[in-house]
Design goal:
The structure holds 2 protein chains of 2 kinds. By secondary structure, chain A is of the alpha+beta class. Chain A has 3 domains: 116 residues, Alpha-Beta Complex (Sufe protein. Chain: A); 59 residues, BFD-like [2Fe-2S]-binding domain (Arc Repressor Mutant, subunit A), CATH 1.10.10.1100; 75 residues, GMP Synthetase, Chain A, domain 3 (2-Layer Sandwich). In chain A, 43% of the residues lie in helices and 18% in strands. Chain A contains 10 helices and 8 strands. In chain A, the strands form 3 sheets. Chain A has a 3-stranded antiparallel sheet with strand order 1-2-3. Chain A has a 3-stranded mixed sheet with strand order 6-7-8, with helices on one face. A two-stranded antiparallel ribbon of chain A has the order 4-5. In chain A, helix 10 links the parallel strand 7 and strand 8. About 2% of the residues of chain A have low confidence. Chain B is α/β, with parallel strands linked by helices. Chain B has 2 domains: 239 residues, Type I PLP-dependent aspartate aminotransferase-like (Major domain) (Aspartate Aminotransferase, domain 2); 123 residues, Aspartate Aminotransferase, domain 1, CATH 3.90.1150.10. In chain B, 39% of the residues lie in helices and 14% in strands. Chain B contains 11 helices and 13 strands. In chain B, strand 5, helix 6 and strand 6 form a beta-alpha-beta unit. Chain B is globular. The model of chain B has no long low-confidence stretch (mean pLDDT 94). The chains are: A alpha+beta, B alpha/beta. Chains A and B meet through helix 1, strand 2, strand 3 and helix 2 of A and helix 8 of B. Chain B: Belongs to the class-V pyridoxal-phosphate-dependent aminotransferase family. NifS/IscS subfamily.
């Protein structure tokens, strides 16, 4: 019998946030019936991409259900970006730990969140689902394995199986897992954590666009310019044209147009919409 | 909270009558049965009586019974002995649904250069005897086929299997751990060479078992050391365990009719009640040729470990063939060999009853389990919507 913590048992017997959100802003689905565990995560966001509600449906064992319940408790109230900071170790830690063989349940929670965010941002698949399928039994790719190794500092093939399920079926891929492990350990610095593309919701309303532009300028662009003695002020948002005033050192800088195009406009295009243009108001 | 123990294929409670018979051998009658003094010698006589009781239950001669520690030891010993005594033969036949006590030995021997054939089973968990006939070779040293499957209760036609194998000159071993006390065993008419049984499956304690070795069959001991068991299994005998096994065999033999009437009726009521109360549920394995105490039922859309843990809250003990219970990531090798779809295999629960189970216990399971399945299906993303066809009917 597995040694589950009281908190795992509690979240299994009385899971929080079970169910669907019919008008969810995004849904993330991972796993399958064949694999033995699956999680469907529903998120409801406010206009600031803050998670105001999270619900789940899980097919799986006690730790899968408890991990799902824990995840929803942990991310409610966070912005999407803040939620993405929650790691699978955080989920396990929230539950007071999971048996090592069950760590893949916490990984499933993390992956469902990423799938939901990818869904929000119009991405077809989570980036780690791309790559070479190494474990055919459970459809695990090399990217998922490399990421699990890097994020959880895995050092054995057994640990890879515990965290990703790869190698837990027919076992044909065990040698390949050992190769990936050796390779990953040798090239650890080159491993990049998964980056979910920043919010680029399609079809923003004027209000949503204004809020997102304002937020990006206030939280990212202005502080960056202020470091160099400059500043920026949002004047107006007219359709997809953003009107700004440069302040401080930026107002007299010879390169101000470069700053506007190469920094301000580029960052707003990444964060808000691809076809935003920025104009300076004097 | 009272325990409702429906996991008797895993282990059984020690029968109070067995315990009572064993108790003196833990205390005042502690002599070594191999000793020359009367104090030990009297224990030796009790050991002989236990051997006679076991032989009686197996339908063999007392001299054909070798006491050991468990079914696993019996299986290991039989397989290794059969190969060691026929060094010119390098082929073994077994099935894909054996207990690991056989499967892992055969896999180990494959790594040592032996060839193995694993017979498949159909969707009911039954063997194709033509496949057995086709697999037999002049160099087949051993056919090792379990008599009854521990997970589904499927009973193999061991008499026919043994006859086919013997005709082609192979030795035959059967793991009868699940059979003792449930199906009459008569080794006078069953032409196997080795047969393994285990005490704790038949209301004797853990740590004792017996291997039948047919008189005249060449034998190579697995355990080397002293002269115990006529040199066939070294090591001071587990006297108390053997006394318990002897008594348990006597009781089991007297209760076979009860197993096949009262226990079977209880099992059938449990099975029928669950199937009636829970949609998308099905029995895994043959219902025509099955142990009287076992039912293996799958509940679609939910996972076995979750079911077990929720049942545990009511003191209900059973087993699951789901992946999550085992540390493995794939469901039971038996259910997979039978082609049970994943949709069902992950949600499989084995109930195995004994003569100690009651109608009231079955009533509790019938009252609680449908609610548990419904609760887990509420959580599951795969539950069937009203009006939808089942996800899988195969």
């Amino acid at each position: 019998m597995w040694e589950y913590t009281d908190k795992v048992r509690e979240h299994f017997i009385n899971p929080r946030n079970v169910g669907e959100i019919p008008d969810a802003d995004c849904v993330g689905e991972v796993g399958s019936l064949a694999c033995g565990d699956a999680l469907k995560l529903f998120l409801k966001l406010d206009e600031n991409e803050r998670i105001v509600d999270a619900k789940f449906q899980t097919f799986g064992c006690a730790s899968a259900i408890a991990s799902s319940s824990a995840l929803t408790e942990m991310i409610k109230g966070k912005t999407v970006d803040e939620a993405l900071e929650v790691s699978n170790q955080d989920i396990a830690q929230f539950l007071g730990g999971l048996p090592k063989e069950k760590m893949h349940c916490s990984v499933m929670g993390k992956e469902a969140l990423e799938a939901a965010v990818a869904n929000l941002r119009g991405l077809p698949v989570a980036p780690h689902e791309e790559g070479e399928v190494v474990c055919e039994c459970f459809g695990v790719t090399d990217q998922t394995i490399r990421r699990a190794i890097a994020e959880n500092n895995l050092s054995t093939v057994e640990e890879i199986t515990d965290f990703t399920k790869a190698g837990g079926g027919c076992g044909k891929c065990l040698d390949r897992l050992a190769d990936i492990l050796a390779e990953a350990k040798g090239q650890k610095k080159e491993l990049k954590p998964l980056e979910i593309a920043p919010a680029k919701p399609a079809g923003l309303t004027n209000m949503q666009r204004m809020k997102l532009v304002s937020k990006t300028i206030e939280e990212e662009i202005a502080p960056s310019l202020q470091k160099d003695g400059g500043d920026i002020e949002l004047v107006d948002v007219d359709g997809k044209t953003v009107l700004v005033k440069l302040r401080g050192a930026c107002s007299s800088c010879k390169s101000s147009q470069v700053t506007l195009k190469q920094f301000v406009e580029k960052r707003l295009r990444e964060a808000v919409e691809q076809d935003i243009t920025v104009q300076e108001v004097r | 909270m009272a325990v409702i123990y429906l996991d008797n294929n895993a282990t059984t409670r020690v029968d109070p009558a067995v315990l009572e018979e064993m108790l003196p051998f833990f205390s005042e009658r502690y002599g070594n049965p191999s000793s020359m003094h009367a104090f030990g010698g009297s224990v030796g006589r009790e050991l002989s009586q236990a051997r006679e009781r076991v032989a009686q239950a197996l339908g063999c001669a007392p001299g054909e019974v070798v006491f050991n520690a468990c079914g696993t030891e019996g299986d290991n010993t039989a397989i290794r002995s059969a190969l060691a005594s026929q060094p010119e033969k390098r082929h073994i036949i077994t099935t894909r649904v054996e207990h690991p006590a056989v499967l892992n030995v055969v896999k180990h021997l494959e790594r040592k250069g032996y060839e193995a054939t694993y017979l498949g089973v159909d969707h009911e968990g039954m063997l194709d005897l033509d496949e057995l006939r086709d697999s037999l070779r002049p160099d087949t040293a051993l056919v090792s086929v379990m008599w009854a499957n521990n997970e589904t209760g499927a009973v193999f036609p061991i008499h026919e299997i043994a006859r086919i194998a013997k005709e082609r000159g192979a030795l035959v071993h059967t793991d009868a751990v699940q059979v003792l006390g449930k199906i009459p065993i008569d080794l006078k008419t069953l032409p196997v060479d080795f047969l393994a049984v285990s005490g704790h499956k038949v209301h004797a304690p853990k740590g004792v078992g017996a291997l039948f070795v047919r008189k005249g069959v060449q034998y190579r001991p697995f355990m080397l050391g002293g002269h115990q068991e006529h040199g066939r299994r070294a090591g001071t005998e587990n006297t108390t365990g053997i006394i318990g096994l002897g008594k348990a065999c006597e009781i089991a033999q007297a209760n076979i009719a009860h197993e096949n009437s009262a226990v079977k009726a209880l099992r059938d009521r449990l099975e029928a009640g669950l199937l009636a109360a829970i949609p998308e549920a099905r029995v895994n394995g043959s219902t025509a040729s099955r142990l009287p105490n076992t039912t293996n039922i799958s509940f679609q859309y939910v996972e076995g470990e979750a079911i077990l843990l929720m049942m545990d809250a009511f003191g209900i003990c059973a087993s699951s063939g789901s992946a999550c219970t085992s540390g493995s990531l794939e469901p039971s090798h038996v259910l997979r060999a039978m082609g049970v779809p994943f949709t069902y295999a992950h949600g499989s629960i084995r109930f195995s009853l004994s003569r100690f189970n009651t109608d009231a216990e079955v009533d509790t399971v019938l009252a609680e389990l449908p609610k548990i399945i419904a609760r887990l299906r509420e959580i599951s993303p795969f539950k069937r919507q009203e009006g939808e066809a089942p996800a899988c009917t195969c």
